[in-house]
Amino acid sequence: MRPDWESGLRGRIYAFGRRVVPLSWRRAVRRRMRPERLLGLRKPPPVLSTLPLPDRSPGGPADVLVLPVIAWTYRRQRPQQLAEALARRGRRVFYGSLAGDGEPGEPAGVAPGVALLPIPGVRREDPADRRLVEPSLSRALAGIEAARARFGIADAVLLAQSPFWAPLALALRDRFGGTLVYDCLDAHEAFGKNRPGVLAEAEAALVRCADLVTATSEPLRRRLEESGAAARLLPNACDFARFAAVPPPSRRAGALTVGYVGAVDEWFDMPLLDALAARRPDWTFEIVGGVEDAAARPPRRPNVLFRGERPYAEMPDWHARFDVEIIPFQLSPLTHATDPVKLYEAAACGRPVVATPMEALRPFAERGLVRLADGAEEFERAIEAAAASESGPRLRAFALENTWDVRAAALDQWLTRAGTRGNVGRA
User: Fold this and answer.
1) CB of 352 closer than 8 Å to CB of 324
2) What are the DSSP calls for 398-412, one per residue?
3) Which residue range(s) make up the domain with 355?
4) What is the DSSP string of 111-149?
5) Are residues 158 and 220 in the same domain?
6) 38 within a domain of the structure (yes/no)
7) How far is CA 333 from CA 121, 214, 220, 272, in A?
8) Whether 383 and 420 share a structural domain
9) pLDDT per position in the chain (427 positions), as tens?
10) Nearest to 387 by CA among 419, 351, 363
């Protein structure tokens, strides 16, 4: 399913270019121009909420400056969710805005207690494959210094979510003080579209100097600990209130609707999906997410439906269509360290999940919260067993215990208990 603005000949040319032009080339082009404008396409800008800029409460907790791995206007994930949850705990949150389509040129309120703060000299394409060096580093530092004066930001928490930010985060802490947190979301160097050497060097510096290091999965936490960091586990979570009203599956006999929600990229196992769909032509497989891997060859089967990227507000309605959800990821260092948000959101909807045997998911499998399967035959059996199970109430109870507010409370506690720099991770 293509968005309306990609329809017609020019839209097909644009989509073809995305498939055949290497991502590194596309990033280089986008730093200089907008190819959709060159083709005369009208890509609708992302819709931003327009809220008042957050006011500082006298005596309130320290502000948070999020140095994100993704732009606010990108797909809604951990960075945006955790920022909003921290704001609900009374902190002012300033989320770094990276220059690009949909990003404001001035500070803008986008959620209660959350403001986008433009960081000069950094584009949304930069964190994945560039070093933050001069003159961009000085521009970014000066921009944040001006924002500190304008908004009265004092000893802020610096929440870095990509190794890219190491030079800026360290410079800000040295100049202004505060607490530096490295929130490690993924094995960044394992993404095929990132520059592993650049990110590994920056991450080593960040881990060495951070006051607190958190990781989304146990494999990530162990890896960071081996490098000398007293890392804490801060898993992903769900917006339970958004998904709790989704009705239980219909428990139909025979035909099932099997769903996947999320990006379809290098880690998605297309051959597995194809083999599974071939084994069960009576099942419908709905894939809700944009196909972002140029090398991907989606199955051309009548029972496999690619729904494209859909707004986050529609997600409860899509989950409601599914009897069982799947996470068919190829096994790699990247996916073994992944803690999928989609697992928590499916649980909030009462939907059982079948996934490939990723290391980070084994503790969930031991608790009966996910079924792990290897290959199409095992997947078929596991989906049938999941559809026949009575796991909905237990899954929802698990999701209720694993919300973004719970994660923010844990992080808040670690930050509040910090006495002096360096004590947070050892508390």
Assistant:
1) yes
2) HHHTSBHHHHHHHHH
3) 240-400
4) ETTEEEEEEEEEETTSTTT----TTHHHHHHHHHHHHHH
5) yes
6) no
7) 32, 18, 10, 19
8) no
9) 556 656 677 766 776 666 666 666 666 666 666 777 776 666 666 778 789 999 887 778 999 999 999 999 888 999 999 999 999 999 999 999 998 878 899 999 999 999 999 999 999 888 877 899 999 999 999 999 999 999 999 889 999 999 999 999 999 999 999 999 999 999 887 777 677 677 888 999 999 999 999 999 999 999 999 988 889 999 999 999 999 999 998 866 678 999 999 999 999 999 999 999 999 999 999 999 988 776 678 999 999 999 998 999 999 999 999 999 999 999 999 999 999 999 999 999 999 999 999 999 999 999 999 999 999 999 999 999 999 999 999 999 999 999 999 999 999 999 987 644 444 443 3
10) 351
Looking at the structure, tell me whether residues 206 and 219 fall in a common domain.
yes
DSSP state of 16: H
61 preceded by a cis bond (ω within 30 of 0): no
Pull the structure tokens for residue 357. 């045997």
110 and 164, same domain (yes or no): yes
| Residues ≥6 apart with Cβ < 8 Å to 212 | 179, 180, 181, 182, 232, 414, 415, 418, 424, 425
* Whole-angstrom distance, CA of residue 76 vs CA of residue 306: 20
- Report DSSP letters for 231-243, one per residue: -EE----B-HHHH
Question: Do residues 170 and 118 both lie within one domain?
Answer: yes
Rounded to an integer, what distance in angstroms lies between the CA atom of residue 374 and that of residue 354? 10
- The answer to whether residues 331 and 228 touch, using CB atoms and an 8 Å cutoff, is no
Residue 320 carries which side chain, given as an amino acid letter?
Answer: A
Contact in structure between 336 and 354 (CB atoms under 8 Å): no
Based on the domain organization, do 153 and 208 belong to the same domain? yes
Regarding whether 255 and 368 lie in a shared domain, the answer is yes
Kindly report the CATH number assigned to the domain that includes residue 247: 3.40.50.2000
**Token representation of residue 117:** 């703060």
Q: 381: helix, coil or strand?
A: helix
Q: Which two tokens stand for residue 23?
A: 């991502």
210 shares a domain with 121 = yes
